Amino acid sequence: MIELSNVKAFYPGGEGLELVNVTVKPGEFVYLIGPSGAGKSSVLKLIYMDIKPQSGFVRVNGFNSLNMKRKQIPLLRRKLGIIFQDFKLLTDRTVFENVAFTLNVTNSRQRDIKRKVLRVLAEVGLRHKENKMPHELSGGEQQRVAIARALVNEPIILLADEITGNLDPLSEEDIISLLEKIHAKGTAILMATHDNRLVRGKNRKIIRIEKGRTIN
Ligand SMILES: Nc1ncnc2c1ncn2[C@@H]1O[C@H](COP(=O)(O)OP(=O)(O)OP(=O)(O)O)[C@@H](O)[C@H]1O
Ligand SMILES: [Mg+2]
Predict the structure, then answer these.
(1) Around Cβ 165, how many Cβ atoms within 10 Å?
(2) N or C: less crowded end of the chain, CB within 10 Å?
(3) Whole-angstrom distance, CA of residue 18 vs CA of residue 60
(4) What domains lie within the chain, and their CATH numbers?
(5) How is the beta sheet containing 16-24 ordered, strand by strand?
(6) How many alpha carbons lie under 13 Å from residue 69 in its C-beta half-sphere?
(7) What's the CA gap between 205 and 32, in Å, rounded?
(8) Which 8-state DSSP code applies to residue 15?
(9) Nearest Cα residue to atom 12 of ligand 1
(10) Does the beta carbon of 84 lie inside 6 Å of ligand 1?
(11) Which residue's CA is the nearest one to ligand 1's atom 30?
(12) Ligand 2 centre and the CA of 7: distance in Å?
């Protein structure tokens, strides 16, 4: 489903990925672990095709970086749920509107939009906060809105970039158990983190990355 094969990708300053091999199969929950600057966010950017490899290739759900057209990128991203450390919610929209936003731009019917949004809000435990503004929510709740927004298009995979980085330990636990629940329902997850504690005692597939190289 996702495959990065012998990827090298350099930013203009010369930093970047030296040699990266990553595969995620349908339904897998994979942790991408490495220190700050190792290249975790860059791996995710390669998957959502924000950057292009200089050598090797990236395959995602039938698309290949070797022959990907620029205008196909939105099509690919609609199949990916992307979540960041800083939530990236629209501050002037309600919880409901934040989640509905990506459905509105894909032109769904109002009745379908409402049904889908309320379903994912219930899934993340925020059905009762649909009319709140983001600033009225805790950090953990805001991150759950971001997860609901990522889920609403029924993605093939959730790409999570250090998503518990801004949260206190209790909210962090909440978010991890929410991800485990989502995974149990069949969604694949690739979770980038510097935090080894998150995988301690868990039987998860781990890909380690250091200085731009993956160590499997
Ligand atoms: N837009 C950019 N332009 C130039 N260099 C960049 C850019 N983004 C990242 N880099 C460099 O690429 C390397 C990998 O960065 P990346 O952001 O992927 O690391 P990371 O593992 O996500 O780190 P962190 O845990 O701090 O988020 C670093 O050396 C970084 O300085
Ligand atoms: Mg990063």
Answers:
(1) 14
(2) C
(3) 20
(4) 1-79+190-216 (3.40.50.300)
(5) 63-64, 55-60, 2-10, 16-24, 213-215, 205-210, 29-33, 188-193, 157-161, 80-84
(6) 3
(7) 9
(8) -
(9) 16
(10) no
(11) 37
(12) 18
| pLDDT mean values, one per 10 residues, the chain (216 residues) | 97 94 97 97 97 97 96 94 96 97 79 94 97 97 97 96 94 95 96 92 92 91
Task: Give pLDDT tens digits for 107-140.
Answer: 678 889 999 999 999 999 999 999 999 999 999 9
Task: With 0.85 as the threshold, say if the pTM is over it.
Answer: yes
Pocket probe mutation, ligand 1, options 41, 45, 48, 163, max atoms within 8 Å of Cβ? 41
**To which residue do tokens 């490899």 refer?**
53
CB 160 within 8 A of CB 190: yes
Going from the C-alpha of 18 to that of each of 3, 49, 67, 95, 108, the distances in angstroms are 16, 17, 22, 40, 42
Q: Is there a contact between 192 and 160 (Cβ–Cβ < 8 Å)?
A: yes
